[in-house]
Amino acid sequence: MIDCVLKKTDKRLRMENWYVLYTKPRYETKVAAKLTALGIKAYCPMLTSKHQWSDRKKVVSTPLISSCIFIQSNENDRKMVFQVPGAVRYLYWLGVPAIVKSAEIEVMQLWLQGEIIDAKVENLQPGDKYHVKEGHFKGKEGIVQEVTKNRLQLILVELGMKITITRDTINS
Hints:
By secondary structure, the protein is α+β, with helices and mostly antiparallel strands. Helices cover about 25% and strands about 35% of the residues. It has helices at about 1-15, 30-35, 100-115, 165-170, and strands at about 15-25, 40-45, 45-50, 55-65, 70-75, 85-90, 90-95, 95, 100, 130, 140-145, 150-155, 160-165. Residues about 1-10 and about 115-120 have low confidence and may be disordered.
């Protein structure tokens, strides 16, 4: 009986799971790069957007979730991340480090590698249901939260996220 328990525990210690690691503010990409150099698989989801200032336009990449990255590690090597300056702590759920499913990481990577090709805002009112017809969110249904001249905010209830589509995104 004891051997069986030890084997299950050993298997859990060898499994590589995805964990959420909090970082210092604006350290996300630095921590991910240093962890990768140490041989720990790290993923920092980035959003790329166009920003316009009075004198120029620039494409800027920002982390999708501020002060958070995802790391893939086994239970024994989880503490190695704290060798990197900027790593703060793990996200915990019910007293244990929260584990993110590999499928969820893969879906996030797929969504973030593409672009929204075309979007049109036509006579939508807050509270209206809207079906996304193209792009990575194709087939998803959302609830319109806010419509302005330059922006549409759509809540995708099924995914638990809010999408903002701006006039810049539509015209690019």
